[in-house]
Amino acid sequence: MPEERVYVIPLREVKRVPRYLRAKKASKLVREFLIRHMKSDEVKLDTKLNHELWKQGVESPPSKIRVRAVKQDDGSVKAFLAVEPGR
Questions:
Q1: Buried (b) or exposed (e) across 26-37, using 16+ Cβ within 10 A?
Q2: What is the pLDDT along the chain (87 residues), one digit of tens a residue?
Q3: Which residues 6+ apart lie within 8 Å of 35 measured at CB?
Q4: What CATH code is carried by the domain that includes residue 46?
Q5: Per the domain annotation, does 87 fall within a domain?
């Protein structure tokens, strides 16, 4: 049975890298966070989650993002953008 969790992932660390690498670093941070917390080696990001990270351009990713992570029976993790109630 799949295990599902919702995380708010801080992306403050992207401010320490050059502007032209910030969105790429944000996606790496999401992957690293989910590998560490869901204890899996394989993490796939949903296209809507990736679009949200890149929405404001490469230089200005969000400072935090809400993610719904689902761990499959084979150990892989799929990450989706969590929709806040009322939106």
A1: bbebbbebbeee
A2: 889 999 999 999 999 999 999 999 999 999 999 999 999 999 999 999 999 999 999 999 999 999 999 999 999 999 999 987 666
A3: 41, 43, 77
A4: 3.10.440.10
A5: no
